[in-house]
C-alpha cells in the first residue's frame, strides 16, 4: 500500500510545524505556519525522563534524527512528540513526573495548561 499525503501545509487556524533545524546540543529552531520561529531546548527533558524510549535521544546523533509528519515534530515512530502549543511558546521543555504534575496543578492552578469545563446550569422554562 502506498500512502500519498496531498494535504500540504496547513493554512487553517491550527498551528503546525513547517520546519525544524538543529542548532546545537539539544536545541532546535522551529518554524510554525503562523510565521513565528522559536528556539526550543530539549536537554532538561531528555535528562530527567526515566523512559528508555526517550533516553536514547540523549545520543546527539539520535536526537538529530527528528522529522516532521502531519505538521508535528517527532522522533522515531511517535517515540517522542510534543504538543505544538508547547513548542510554540519556545524555551525549555520540562519533564514533570506523573505524580508531581497533579500536585503542581493544585499548587499553581493558573499555570496549569488544562482547563476544566464549567458545569451546565439548568434554565427553568
Write the layout of secondary structure elements.
Blueprint: E1 17-24, E2 27-32, E3 37-41, H1 43-48, H2 52-55, H3 60-63, E4 67-69, E5 72-75, E6 80-81, H4 84-89, E7 91-92, H5 98-107
Parallel strand pairs: 3-7
Antiparallel strand pairs: 1-2, 2-3, 4-5, 5-6
Written account of the structure:
The strands form two sheets. Strands 1-2-3-7 form a four-stranded mixed β-sheet. Strands 4-5-6 form a three-stranded antiparallel β-sheet, with no helix packed on it. The chain has 125 residues and is of the alpha+beta class. The chain has a domain at 18-95: 2-Layer Sandwich (NE0471 N-terminal domain-like). It is globular and about 35 Å long. It is built from five helices and seven strands; from the N terminus they run E-E-E-H-H-H-E-E-E-H-E-H. The relative contact order is 0.16.
Output mean pLDDT: 81
- Class from helix and strand fractions: alpha+beta
Low-confidence stretches: 111-122
Give the C-alpha Rg: 18 Å
What is the topology, as strand order, of the major beta sheet?
1-2-3-7
Biggest sheet architecture: 4 strands, mixed
Count of DSSP E strands? Answer: 7
Number of helices: 5
Let me know the CATH homologous superfamily of one domain.
Answer: NE0471-like N-terminal domain
User: What is the rounded distance between the termini?
Assistant: 57 Å
Helix content: 10-25%
**Architecture (CATH level 2) name of one domain:** 2-Layer Sandwich
How do the SSEs run, as a string of H and E?
A: EEEHHHEEEHEH
* Percentage of residues in strands: 15-25%
Amino acid at each position: 500500500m502506498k500512502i500519498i499525503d496531498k494535504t500540504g501545509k496547513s493554512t487553517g487556524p491550527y498551528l503546525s510545524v513547517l520546519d525544524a533545524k538543529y542548532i546545537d546540543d539539544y536545541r532546535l529552531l522551529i518554524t510554525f505556519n503562523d510565521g513565528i520561529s522559536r528556539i526550543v531546548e530539549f536537554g532538561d527533558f531528555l535528562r530527567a525522563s526515566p523512559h528508555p524510549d526517550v533516553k536514547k535521544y540523549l545520543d546527539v546523533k539520535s536526537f538529530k534524527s527528528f522529522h516532521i509528519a502531519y505538521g508535528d515534530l517527532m522522533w522515531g515512530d511517535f517515540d517522542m512528540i510534543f504538543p505544538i502549543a508547547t513548542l510554540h511558546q519556545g524555551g525549555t521543555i520540562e519533564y514533570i513526573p506523573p505524580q508531581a504534575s497533579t500536585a503542581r496543578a493544585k499548587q499553581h492552578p493558573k499555570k496549569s495548561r488544562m482547563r476544566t469545563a464549567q458545569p451546565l446550569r439548568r434554565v427553568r422554562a
